[in-house]
Design brief:
Length: 121
């Protein structure tokens, strides 16, 4: 299956499909990985993003949102409760939108590095 596929494992993972064959689902729920591919039976147990996606998002969104909060404070001085509500909601939505794609990206990179057939080196 992989020989005929023009896309690599990272793109397959970003499409939430198995990085090995690109057909089975990578996730069994929103963030939980399936134990294995439903199409090619590739075992996903060796692919684990761990806390990597959440750690990256804390760093990325922290670097983006803290300056924006300071800028809003300087320009408009809204009440503290409004700042907390606004940036809390922004952080929650941004994190919910990007956690799964980032996890899939890291899984795709891991598969590429640990590719059992070494086709992507
Ligand atoms: Zn598969």
């Amino acid at each position: 299956m992989r020989e005929g596929s023009p896309i690599g494992p990272v793109r397959r993972a970003l499409k939430n499909t198995c990085p090995n064959c690109g057909e089975g689902s990578l996730f069994s729920s929103w963030l939980r990985m399936a134990p294995s591919c439903s199409s090619c039976n590739f075992d996903f147990s060796e692919l684990d993003a761990g806390d990597g996606p959440a750690s990256f998002l804390v760093l990325i969104y922290g670097a983006l949102i803290v300056p924006l909060a300071f800028l809003l404070e300087v320009l408009a001085s809204p009440p503290l409760w409004l700042q907390a509500l606004l940036w809390g909601v922004v952080m929650l939505i941004a994190t919910m939108k990007s956690l799964r794609p980032l996890k899939a990206l890291i899984i795709g990179w891991q598969f590429r590095i640990h590719d059992p057939d070494k086709k992507y080196f």
